[in-house]
Specification:
By secondary structure, this protein is of the alpha+beta class. Helix content is 24%, strand content 25%. It folds into 3 domains: 80 residues, Chitinase A, domain 3, CATH 3.10.50.40; 45 residues, Thrombin, subunit H (Beta Barrel), CATH 2.40.10.330; 70 residues, Alpha-Beta Plaits.
C-alpha cells in the first residue's frame, strides 16, 4: 500500500484522488496527530531536512488482534439494510470495520486497522515550522480545508473572517466546526473563537 501527500507521486503510483488536497501535512507535536514512530523522527529533524525511516508495528498501528475479527450472519446486515461485500467499510458498534469475506450466509468482519501488524517505511521532509499564534491559527484552518481572509488575536480571543468569495456550502460548515474544535483543542490559551462571514446576494441571470 502506498500513500503520499505529493500529487506527482500519487499520479505515478496510480493512486491520485481528485477529491484530495495534496501538499505538506500539519503535524502537531505531542497531540498524537501522527503515529508514535513518525512523531519521534520529526522531533529529531530540522527544517529542510529529509529522512527515510522504518517504523515497527508497536510504534505504528499496533499488532493485529484476532479478537477484532468476527464472523456474523448475513441476516444481521439485511436488518441494517446493508448489502455485505468484501472491502465494504461499516460501523460496527461504533468502530470502523471492513468486510473481508462473504461465504454461505456468513460475513467475516475485521476491525483491525488495515496497517496493523505492518512494518512501515516513510520518506519525509520538514518544510517549515509554524511559529506565532496567528500562523498556528491559520495552519489549523487550512488543516480543516479553510483559508481565512484574515486572522486576528486579541487577548485570548481569536477572530477569523471568511469573505463573500468563500463558498458557504455544506462542506464549509462541516469544516468550520472542525476548525473551531481544533483551535480550542490544540491552542489551550485561546478562550473564544469568533468566525465572521460575509454573504452577498447572487445576481440573477438575465433572460
Amino acid at each position: 500500500m502506498v500513500y503520499t501527500t505529493q500529487k506527482n507521486l500519487a499520479e505515478q503510483n496510480d493512486i491520485y484522488n481528485k477529491e484530495r488536497t495534496y501538499g505538506p501535512s500539519l503535524v502537531i507535536i505531542g497531540k498524537r496527530t501522527v503515529i508514535k514512530g513518525l512523531e519521534k523522527a520529526i522531533r529529531e529533524m530540522n527544517v529542510n531536512e529529509s529522512r527515510k525511516i522504518e517504523v515497527a508495528p508497536e510504534d505504528a498501528f499496533g499488532e493485529r488482534n484476532p479478537d477484532l475479527v468476527r464472523v456474523m450472519h448475513a441476516s444481521d446486515f439485511k436488518k441494517r439494510d446493508i448489502d455485505p461485500r468484501p472491502g465494504l467499510q461499516i460501523d460496527l458498534d461504533g468502530t470502523v470495520a471492513v468486510i473481508t469475506a462473504v461465504n454461505s450466509g456468513r460475513v467475516t468482519v475485521d476491525a483491525n486497522h488495515p496497517l496493523a501488524g505492518e512494518r512501515l517505511t516513510y520518506e519525509l521532509k520538514i518544510v517549515a515550522k509554524v511559529d506565532g499564534e496567528k500562523e498556528r491559527v491559520a495552519a489549523l484552518a487550512e488543516m480543516s480545508s479553510l483559508k481565512a481572509d484574515s486572522v486576528k488575536l486579541e487577548n485570548n480571543d481569536v477572530e477569523l473572517s471568511f469573505g463573500e468569495k468563500v463558498e458557504k456550502d455544506a462542506d464549509y460548515f462541516i469544516n468550520k466546526t472542525a476548525m473551531v474544535n481544533a483551535i480550542l483543542e490544540y491552542m489551550p490559551k485561546v478562550s473564544k473563537v469568533v468566525v465572521k462571514e460575509d454573504y452577498a446576494r447572487k445576481e440573477e441571470k438575465k433572460q
